[in-house]
Specification:
With 652 residues, the protein is α+β, with helices and mostly antiparallel strands. The protein has three domains: 18-190 and 203-238, Immunoglobulin-like; 274-442, C8orf32 fold; 449-649, Jelly Rolls (Sandwich). Helices cover 15% and strands 41% of the residues. It has ten helices and 38 strands. It has an eight-stranded mixed sheet, with no helix packed on it. The chain has an eight-stranded mixed sheet with strand order 27-28-26-25-32-36-35-34. Strand 23 (429-433) and strand 24 (439-442) form a beta hairpin. The radius of gyration is 30 Å and the shape is globular. It starts with a strand and ends with a strand.
Length: 652
Amino acid sequence: MKYLLFPLFSIFFSITLNGQVTSLEYGEISAEDISYSEHKTDKEAEAVVLYDIGKSTFIKDDEGGFDIIFERRTRIKILKEGGLEYAEVNIPYYHEGNNYEQVYNVKGSTYNFEDGKLIETKFKNKNLFTEKINSNWDRKKLALPNVKVGSIIEYTYKIQTPYIFNLVDWEFQWRIPNLYSKYEVSLVPFYTYSYIVQGVSKFDHFETKLSSMERQFGPAKYRDMLHVFILKNIDGFKDEEFITSVNDYIIKIDFQLSKVTQMNGAEIEYMSTWPKIAKELEKRVDFGKFIKKSEKAASKIPDIAALEGKTDKEKFESVVNYVKSNYNWNGENRKYAQKSVNELMKDKYGNSAELNLFMIGLLNAVGIESYGVLISTRNHGKVKSDYPFIHFFNYTLGLAYFDGKPQLADATETLTQPFRIPPRCINDNGLLINSDKIGWVDLKFNKPSKMKYSFDIDVANDSIEGEVELSADEYTALYLRKKYGDDIEKLNTALTKKGYNLVDSCTEIEGLEDINTDYQYKFKVNNPAEKINNKFYISPFLFECISENPLKQDKRHYPLDMHYPKIQSYVTTIKIPENYRIDYKPDNFHVRNNLFEMKYNILENGDELQVTMSYYFKNSEYLQTDYNLIKYYFKEIVKHGNKKIVLAPTDS
């Protein structure tokens, strides 16, 4: 992945790409827009962005400072039924305390060419709805009217924000092709920003120029500096299995405030370094001081005071479990606390930062050296460690030191083992917030998670009768605990959807009492046997092996992220019915290397046939250069996992 870091004002380059751009003025629909019916290289595209234009400018606010006005206008052509989803537009906006971003001037239209005429249907603002996302984010929602295949949709809106630290970032790439993307940033001389470009080494057009219009702020006269970024004919981002987040790979530009120049000429640097960020966080009320106050509050908690005399490992486990058992996570991922320690202890619920910073303080109180670790969750994207941008992070974990080694900790999820962090937190690296020894913490989990199926099959009365058992550990067990828990009815519904005819009241779930043990369930089945010309065709692993390759693309441009190493195994015993013999069995198959291991074996033992298969993805992440190999391995899993055993009458 390519990243470029620049201060604004720094470069100029331009290249030319093929392709025509239609009118870029809002409301001016051209004949080319109307006749456009298929993308020239992506024939399967369900829609295409005809243009997407954004602009950020600074205006004076009512308090003697500046706000940012962000304006966007977008035109899309709907090509297939699947493209109708783009007629539903979401506009997220932020608020914190008494500061709110304001969304206004929302307009939208749908254009249809009917009976030789272009018919416009305008969006009515009474149909603009507000929806809460979390405690800091809301969104405006609009559904453009009368949209069908062949429609052209267009919308525009403005957002006024007081958060000058957060100059609006821009994504040039959509999941559908984008013919023309332009972002303009008009800066006043009092603020300097740095930016990172991801996914592209050059723009089709980049321009920096001084505005011709003079403005005044107090006694100072100045002109805006305009920066223009243009890309054309951008392929749609092709989503595929095994990626962390689209944010890691999509073509975009990220901004961060690096310097403020005051009226007297004094400069305040905001483009920091990781050590400076760590020192600042240690002083913050909602981070470092929150930990200190939590440590002091520990003396008021009998369960914590009772840990004196325990081993460090016992203390660690007890503290983590105490927070999990007595405080509820509100579902919000945060790197800073929003409540005070007293409020958290009174309410008994909080965001991820509040729970984890509180946990860190309690760990320190019982003598276990602990610190905060800033991370980016998987869906938020990976941290670019070369660039000290604080907005790369959205979550805080704990890191404790005992028994001569570090241990990551999280107190948000009761079903996660105390020595494991939630799956959403398994990413590349986190930043240790300790100004005495700043550094990066590896968040990857390299121990394999196992899932084992056992099948005991009897072919009788033209039926497949038998019992199926599943056992899972580590993160696979966590996934199943969260999905089914002790809900047998929910599990039975899922099994029935797979194709099983279940024997009533025979499903059992085990491993619920102790989250450190394997999660297990078993059930009995009675399915019709596949019988053709008096021969039985038996799938040894019934409905449990994947039936198609999850990797579809011919090429891969980004790594395959498996989350964590995985081992999956199947052991089947088939009882051969009386007066039948084995007519066909697949050949054994083995492959083993440093990336992957797979075994497929068949063993005859009297009137029984044992079929075993196992595969092991040894890495949590594979390079894109390994893509063809991994795709081949999945092909072999599908092929062998779905091969059938044929039983024929002994007299045939």
